[in-house]
Design a protein that fits this description.
The protein has three domains: about 90 residues, Acyl-CoA dehydrogenase/oxidase, N-terminal domain (Butyryl-Coa Dehydrogenase, subunit A, domain 1, Orthogonal Bundle); about 110 residues, Butyryl-CoA Dehydrogenase, subunit A, domain 2 (Beta Barrel); about 160 residues, Up-down Bundle (Butyryl-CoA Dehydrogenase, subunit A, domain 3), CATH 1.20.140. It is built from 13 helices and nine strands. The strands form two sheets. Strands 2, 3, 6, 7 and 8 form a five-stranded antiparallel sheet that branches. Strand 7 and strand 8 form a beta hairpin. The longest helix is centred in the middle third of the chain and has 37 residues. It is globular and about 80 Å long. The chain binds flavin-adenine dinucleotide.
Length: about 400
């Protein structure tokens, strides 16, 4: 195992880190207190600078305008970008587009590549992924009510989805729908590309989450597909392969989240330590940093974040070397453990900031609201623990005494 990085990567990481500090983190004021239209304009301006620096879309394929970084290399970049909620969008690697790009790159036809993939990697359009349904358990997506029925040369899609993240303003959705209802459960659904201006694609609302409905990229839509007709040529991959492709998408997607969460954890940690050293708490001039309780929090978190980081880099290294399937255990383990470490870092940093921690004067409360969901999406903690635990125990089956 070797996490050593090349000189080129060291340069890239230095450039990304500096750009985050000087150009991205300063935009957070607009995110917390300004309006979306002004923020969008500022983000576009920052994106142009990233393109000029030739750092756009670090992990996307070179032939589509990205930098083609490996999973491990992208992990390090993504950690730096995760230090601000705006980092990934400024560099063109935000969810859900990043996962959609991977799946399109693997399965799109030439025509689909030109129509959907190329403008997506270039950042000219955005996309969304429409799988979860309000009336069905998202943790078991074989239970899906949305259907896509063939009619002439078309599919006609009917169903209700929610938490279709970033549908607001997206140019197209990758929709999971049942195409083969009589097939075995894991072969019933397919992925279909649906331009959002197709009649019958109805964005009902941005679902209000933790007090905010959000908008644009930072939103989670309820979408009703009603007689939504698209050509059969919009099928992505093969019919009935939807679940297999979703798993393929989710493996790297999960590690992308973990990498981003490492950035959140490290920035929260930095804010916490800076505050602990700054805050004088008695007339002898002692600060919070002089208190043993705080010192223990700092030491424990430092150890946890280091562990989370090494686990994530190891999973990335496994994916680079052996593929996402071989790294299943590593990915399941980091999905729940890094999510919890990140949430603990945010929560502890808020505690150290006292009342200031729950205001919107720092980025911490934004993360507290938005990142609680980390333990739910892309497989809830319990689901990953069950499947990892089951796989581990199976390996011991022959040793039962
Ligand atoms: C912020 C956010 C963004 C999202 N973005 C998208 C998106 O872009 N596209 C999309 O299609 N979906 C998206 N989702 C949906 C997400 O994938 C689902 O919420 C997730 O799969 C869980 O499904 P559910 O909400 O239906 O919960 P359920 O399946 O109803 O589960 C509820 C809870 O029950 C427990 N549980 C479930 N199964 C088991 C089990 N087998 N054993 C023990 N406990 C269990 C877990 O604690 C779980 O949290 C998003 C969700 C959130 C919160």
């Amino acid at each position: 195992m070797d996490f050593e990085i090349s000189e080129k990567m060291t340069t890239i990481l230095d450039m990304v880190g500096q750009f985050m500090d000087t150009e991205v983190i300063p935009l957070e004021g607009e995110l917390l207190h300004g309006d979306q239209a002004t923020l969008d304009q500022m983000v576009r301006h920052a994106q142009d600078k990233v393109r000029q620096m030739e750092l756009w879309a670090p992990n996307h394929p070179v032939d589509f305008g990205g930098l083609g970084l490996s999973m491990l290399e992208h992990g390090l970049v993504s950690e730096a970008l995760g230090r601000s909620p705006l980092g990934h969008i400024v560099f063109g690697v935000q969810a859900p587009d990043a996962g959609n790009i991977e799946i399109l790159h693997a399965h799109a036809t030439d025509d689909q590549r030109e129509r959907f993939l190329r403008p997506l990697v270039a950042g000219e359009i955005r996309s969304c992924f429409s799988m979860t349904e309000p009336e069905m358990p998202g943790s078991n997506p074989t239970m899906m009510a949305t259907t896509a029925v063939k009619d002439g040369d078309d599919y006609v899609i009917n169903g209700q989805k929610w938490f279709t993240s970033s549908a607001d303003g997206a140019a197209f959705a990758i929709v999971m729908a049942v195409t083969n209802p009589d097939a075995p459960p894991h072969q019933r659904a397919s992925m279909i590309l649906v331009p959002t201006d197709t009649p019958g694609f109805n964005l009902v609302r941005n679902v209000s989450m933790m007090g905010h409905p959000g908008s644009g990229h930072a939103s989670h839509a309820e979408v009703i597909y009603q007689g939504c007709r698209v050509p059969q040529a919009n099928l992505l991959g093969t019919e009935g392969a939807g679940f297999a492709m979703a798993q393929e998408r989710l493996g790297p997607g999960r590690i992308h989240h973990c990498m981003r969460w490492l950035g959140i954890a490290s920035r929260s940690f930095d804010l916490m330590c800076a505050r602990a050293n700054y805050r004088v708490i008695n007339e002898n001039g002692e600060t919070l940093a002089d208190q043993q309780a705080i010192q223990h929090w700092v030491a424990e978190l430092d150890a946890e974040i280091r562990g989370a980081r090494l686990q994530t880099l190891h999973a990335a290294w496994m994916i680079d070397r052996y593929g996402a399937k071989a790294a299943r255990d590593e990915i399941s383990a980091i999905k729940f453990s890094v999510a919890n470490t990140m949430l603990k870092a945010v929560d502890t940093a808020i505690q150290v900031h006292g009342a200031l921690g729950v205001t919107d004067d720092t980025i911490l409360s934004y993360w507290y609201r938005h990142e609680r969901a980390a333990r739910i999406y892309d497989g809830a903690d319990e689901v990953h623990k069950t499947s990892l635990g089951r796989r581990i125990l199976r390996r011991y089956a022959s040793q039962a005494v």
